[in-house]
């Protein structure tokens, strides 16, 4: 059988209907028919956990012209733009708010799962970026959405492409689930390893085991712990969104709004306080970070880093921090913080164990980012016709 040719079609040509949900806020009920909005599309899937309800009568009225059905697509058109999900087989009905667009694909022209992948492609993202409106909250207009050009190979090729890209999605999703499980385990171990029973032999003030170097290093050192002690805007006008200030060694520091500091490639914002990551990539801002050096015969810098990284350590900081609007802590106040320390060999063993857990999580994060990058590259080639997958021709 002769292969059909590929072409580009407008999204409007591939759907029997492109519409959105009601623009009026419904009368919510304690129970009834489920009502969802853009927040219910997460990572390419429908999530009904955070849902509202409307009456059956209102649902029937709202879906009189277009009712969501299995195989239709829902696309976020307000706030978080361009996230899309294919409606699966469900044993219940639901209605949608105006922040969601409803796409009813023509099954004789386009496979819903192929269209799903195409809408998630770099080409579609560029299209959405170019047609969005609004300053605070971004919006997609249906008229502009209908003009999205979709590369349309024959249906059998579409199904094969969708299956291949779906396999990448599965690999990414499983890796992200593994990362989430590892993060939970790490948090549990972080709390357990620093319980008072384990670390109670003696409490030390930071001033007894650490000192502040006279000169702050221009780049991170493995045996330093960097404590973020103050965040504020310096030299930024009200109408200036970002100011670039090179450091002595030429590496840039970007300061944005108060409470946020971009150092190198690390974005650090913990309400004005926090512990700078040990693997900080970039230079240090001397007016915002205190560098602590630890006496090696008394304390392990890695152990102290993990101890201070616990969420509960912020309560200790709050006891000594000063200021009303923009909080800050002086070096002398910082040195009064007390830390219970076990024997040095125990500190080293705990730090080595927690470092191994973090290294494993970091490797998994690198893997999932690599998967996503590879999938984006593959989508760019396959969904624009630059590459073709071998597909067995169907017999006449």
Automatic annotation (TrEMBL):
Coiled-coil stretches noted in the UniProt entry, renumbered to this chain: 354-381
Entry keywords, A to Z: Coiled coil, DNA-binding, Endonuclease, Hydrolase, Nuclease, Restriction system
One Pfam family of this chain: Methylase_S
EC number, UniProt record: 3.1.21.-
Transmembrane segments: none
EC category: hydrolase
Keyword DNA-binding among record annotations: yes
Keyword Magnesium on entry: no
Signal peptide: none
Protein name per Swiss-Prot or TrEMBL: Restriction endonuclease subunit S
Originating organism: Thioalkalicoccus limnaeus
The organism's taxonomic lineage, starting at the top: Bacteria, Pseudomonadati, Pseudomonadota, Gammaproteobacteria, Chromatiales
């Amino acid at each position: 059988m002769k292969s059909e040719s590929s072409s580009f079609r407008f999204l409007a040509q591939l759907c029997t209907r492109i519409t959105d949900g009601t623009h009026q806020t419904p009368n919510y009920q304690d129970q009834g028919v489920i009502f969802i909005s853009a927040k219910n599309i997460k990572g390419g899937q429908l999530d009904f956990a955070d849902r509202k309800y409307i009456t059956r009568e209102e649902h029937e009225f709202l879906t009189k012209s277009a009712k969501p059905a299995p195989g239709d697509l829902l696309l976020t058109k307000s706030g978080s733009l361009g996230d899309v999900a294919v409606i699966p087989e469900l044993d219940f009905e639901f209605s949608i708010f105006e922040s969601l667009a409803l796409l009813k694909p023509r099954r004789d022209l386009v496979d819903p799962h192929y269209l799903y992948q195409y809408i998630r492609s770099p080409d579609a993202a560029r299209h959405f970026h170019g047609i969005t409106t609004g300053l605070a909250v971004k919006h997609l207009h249906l008229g502009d959405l209908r003009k999205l050009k979709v590369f349309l190979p024959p249906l059998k090729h579409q199904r094969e492409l969708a299956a291949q890209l779906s396999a990448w999605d599965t690999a990414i999703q499983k890796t992200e689930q593994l990362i989430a499980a590892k993060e939970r385990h790490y948090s549990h171990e972080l709390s357990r390893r620093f319980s008072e029973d384990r670390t109670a032999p003696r409490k030390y003030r930071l001033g007894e085991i650490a000192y502040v170097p006279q000169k702050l290093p221009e780049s991170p050192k493995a045996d330093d712990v960097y404590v973020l002690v103050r965040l504020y805007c310096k030299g930024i006008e009200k109408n200036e969104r970002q100011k670039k200030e090179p450091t002595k060694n030429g590496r840039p520091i970007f300061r944005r709004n108060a409470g946020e500091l971009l150092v190198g490639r690390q974005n650090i914002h913990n309400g004005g306080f926090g512990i700078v990551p040990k693997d900080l990539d970039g230079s240090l801002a001397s007016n915002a970070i205190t560098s602590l050096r630890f006496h090696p015969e008394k304390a392990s810098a890695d152990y102290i880093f993990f101890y201070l990284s616990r969420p509960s350590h912020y309560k200790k900081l709050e006891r000594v921090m000063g200021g009303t609007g923009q909080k800050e802590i002086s070096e002398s106040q910082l040195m009064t913080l007390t830390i219970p320390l076990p024997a040095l060999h125990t500190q080293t063993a705990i730090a080595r164990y927690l470092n191994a857990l973090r290294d494993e999580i970091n490797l998994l994060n690198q893997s999932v980012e690599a998967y996503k990058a590879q999938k984006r590259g593959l989508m760019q080639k396959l969904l624009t016709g630059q590459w073709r997958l071998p597909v067995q021709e169907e017999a006449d």
